[in-house]
C-alpha cells in the first residue's frame, strides 16, 4: 500500500497543491485557446521513493469557438494575370467548433447565389466564376456560420484586366456649324490604362484615317481629344475612336455623329386654354430643332408687355418633350397682367421667344397689388 504522506501530485503544465494528513490535491487553471482544441491534459501522481511507480489520468480538451475564416484566390491562379474571359475560383478556409453549418459568398456587399446560367458555381468551400467580365472585379468575402456566431473573412480585392471600352455606350450626336472649331473627347475605360488611340472619319463617300497630329491623348485618364472643324458638307459624317492597352484592342469603337446644327427655330401656333383668373394652359407647336435635341421653356413675367425685354422673369418651367405647359396659382394686380415667353433650347443656344400677353383674366375684386404666387402643374 502506498504511503499517502509521501505522494506528490503534479500537473505537467504546472499546478498548485493543497496537502493534508493523508491527502494531496493539485489544481491547475488555464484558459484554453483555439490551438488547444483536441489536445490532452494529464494529471500524474508519482512516488519519488519508487522508480516508475505512478498513477495518471488524462482529459481531452474540447474548445468551442466561432468560425475562423480566410479567403484566397485559387492556388493555381496568379492575381495579376486575370483578364476578361478567364475562369477563376476562390477558396474559403474555415476552422470552427462546432462545425460550420452555413457558408455565404459576398461580392461588393451583395450576396452571390449559385447560378449556373450566370456562371456562378458553389462547390463545397469554393466559389467558381466562369468567363469573368470587368463587372466581376471588386471585393469578395466569404461568411461562415456555426452555432456560436457568423464570421466574415477579410475582403479579397479581385482585379480583372480588360481591353478598352467606351465610357458611354451610345452614339453621341455633335452639332456644329460650318467653320466652327470642335474639341471632341473620346473617353474609354480600360485596365491597364489605354496606351494608344486612333480615329477614323466616314461619310457616305469615303472612310479616312485621322492623322495622329490632329488629336491628343491623356493615357492616365483614358481620353483622346480630336480637334475638328467642318468646312464643307462633306465634313459631316461619323467619327470613330478606338483605343489599345496591354490586353488588346477595343472591339467596338466610340461613335460620334457629326451633324450640321444651329440654334432651334421658335415655337409657333401657340394657344391658350382653360383660362381663369389664376391659371392657364399654354400649348405650342415645336419649330425645327436645329439638328440637335431640344427642350422647351416657359417664363412668366409681370408688368408692361412693351418692356419685357428688360425685365427678369418671375418664374420659369421647362418641358423636355413638347412646348406644353399648365400653370396654376397665379396672382397678379390688375395694373399689370401676366405675360409668358415660350422658347426652345438646344446645345447651340435658345430660339427667339414667342410672347403671349394677358394670359389670365383680370379680377376686379383682386386689385390689391400683390406680387405673384406661382405654381406649375406639369
UniProtKB/TrEMBL annotation:
Gene3D superfamilies: Immunoglobulins. The keyword Amino-acid biosynthesis does not apply. InterPro entries: FN3_dom (IPR003961), FN3_sf (IPR036116), Ig-like_dom (IPR007110), Ig-like_dom_sf (IPR036179), Ig-like_fold (IPR013783), Ig_sub (IPR003599), Ig_sub2 (IPR003598), Immunoglobulin_dom (IPR013151). SMART domains: IG, IGc2. Keywords: Receptor. Residues 66-153, 164-245 form the Ig-like domain. Pfam families: ig, Ig_3. The keyword Chloroplast does not apply. It comes from the Eukaryota. PANTHER family: SIDESTEP II, ISOFORM A (PTHR23278:SF31), SIDESTEP PROTEIN (PTHR23278). This is B-cell receptor CD22. It comes from Cyphomyrmex costatus.
